[in-house]
Design brief:
28% strand, two-stranded antiparallel ribbon, 130 residues, three-stranded antiparallel beta sheet, alpha+beta
């Protein structure tokens, strides 16, 4: 394996439109989403907490969301200034009408009750991103 001019190890020295893939890696890193570990590390740096403490905050938030959206909760949870989560229970439907798009045949089928989770961005998040 060859090394690019920067001295980093290049797993694939073949060229892609005149640029080595490993040289593209830095530019592509900004377009990929952050991993859980990266988010925890970044928040730990900005807040001064340890990574373990930040991870426990996320765990506590997960438990809080589970409780609020669970059977006895209000079925709504708001992360202040960011997002609102709502759980909607969709009732069962007897003999719902369906159509086969290939043949045009109409048939009826029972649909069981289900739950839908909706996430709505709040104004501050919209102003931040849009």
């Amino acid at each position: 394996m060859r090394r690019p001019s920067g001295g980093r190890w290049c797993p694939n020295p073949h060229k892609t439109r005149g640029i080595r893939r490993c040289e593209l890696e830095g530019a592509m890193a900004a377009t990929k989403r952050m991993t859980k570990a990266q988010i925890i590390g970044e928040l730990a740096e900005k807040t001064g907490l340890t990574k373990r403490e930040v991870a426990s905050v996320f765990e506590g938030m997960r438990e809080l969301i589970k409780r609020e959206l669970g059977k006895r909760g209000p079925k709504e949870f708001v992360v202040p200034d960011l997002i609102k989560l709502k759980l909607k229970e969709v009732p069962a439907q007897k003999n719902k009408k369906f159509r086969n798009p290939g043949t045009g045949e109409i048939f009826y089928k029972d649909v069981p009750k289900s739950k839908k989770l909706r996430a709505t961005p709040l104004k501050k998040l919209k102003d931040l991103v849009l």
